[in-house]
Design goal:
It contains six helices and 15 strands. The protein is globular and about 65 Å long. It has 268 residues and is of the alpha+beta class. The protein is 31% helix and 31% strand. Helix 5 (224-243) packs across helix 6. It has helices spanning 52-56, 110-129, 146-158, 169-177, 224-243, 251-267, and strands at residues 4-9, 13-20, 23-26, 36-37, 39-42, 48-50, 65-67, 90-93, 99-103, 106-108, 135-140, 162-168, 187-194, 199-207, 210-219.
């Protein structure tokens, strides 16, 4: 039986880990980083870039660089009217009301874009372990509905992975923290998760070594991306006041603002 890897498929960043004995080890990617930007780009030469290389060229190739795809997993086009104008890449409505991404004359579904990120995670694990990986566990937000969970499974299948389990992110966090080792204790705990796309809280109940999500709530539009967007909007407004130039119509300028906003947020 081969090794099973664990993947955190995040809105902004993703990472992969494997169990070494009784400890989990987060695996560094080919760039030497423990997290990989959840970014996929398509170049004019027909190449596909994933992770940091894709993020590095976002300014000059904004329309063909896809990020925050997790926000569109398992959702219908009619559910995202306010989000379409906040991203430089083109979304359209496909058959059945599904979301499609238009890139250089080709169309991709959100699971297909996510699959590219999962393939990068798979390759990272294979390089570290020296063996082929075919099975994985992938985490999702506790509030993900059946369609969103199925879309995540579909992404795994496209990436060549048999997804053995979809695990709620707060449950994975609780396990990583070491809760649940004493199966004789009954516990009720709160786990909050402030990520790139969402801010949510879950109440977990632990009994007989089993975690049960009793309640979950949150804001699906309150995360790092949204903080960045508020900073970007402020910079656009201030620049417009001082120069009368509207940077919101310039996609390259918008991407430069996005990078500057994220950098300022991290430094603060």
């Amino acid at each position: 039986m081969g090794r099973i890897i664990g993947i955190d498929l995040g809105t902004t960043n993703s990472c992969v880990a494997v169990m070494e004995g009784t400890d989990s080890v987060v695996i560094s990617n080919s760039e030497g980083q423990r997290t990989t930007p959840s970014v996929v780009a398509f170049t004019s030469k027909g190449d596909r870039l994933v992770g940091q290389p894709a993020k590095n060229q976002m300014v000059t190739n904004a329309e063909n660089t896809v990020y925050s795809i997790k926000r569109f997993m398992g959702r219908k086009y009619k559910d995202i009217p306010s989000e379409v104008n906040l991203i430089p890449y083109k979304l359209k409505e496909a058959a059945g009301g599904e979301i499609q991404i238009d890139i250089r004359g080709s169309s991709y579904s959100p699971p297909e874009i996510s699959a590219a990120i999962l393939q990068k995670m798979k390759k990272t694990a294979e390089d570290y372990l020296g063996e082929t990986i075919t099975e994985a566990v992938i985490t999702v937000p506790a509030y993900f509905n059946d369609a969103q969970r199925q879309a995540t499974k579909d992404a795994g299948r496209i990436a060549g992975l048999d997804v053995k389990r979809i695990v709620n992110e707060p449950t994975a966090a609780a396990l990583a923290y070491g809760l649940g080792k004493d199966s004789s204790r009954e516990e009720r705990i709160a786990v909050y998760d402030l990520g790139g796309g969402t801010f949510d809280i879950s109440i977990l109940e632990l009994g007989d070594g089993v975690f049960e999500v009793k309640s979950t709530n949150g804001d699906t539009h309150l995360g790092g991306d949204d903080f960045d967007q508020r900073i970007i909007s402020w910079m656009i407004d201030e620049f417009k006041k001082s120069s009368t130039i509207d940077l919101s119509t310039d996609k390259m300028a918008l991407q430069r603002l996005r990078e500057a906003a994220e950098k300022a947020k991290i430094e603060l």
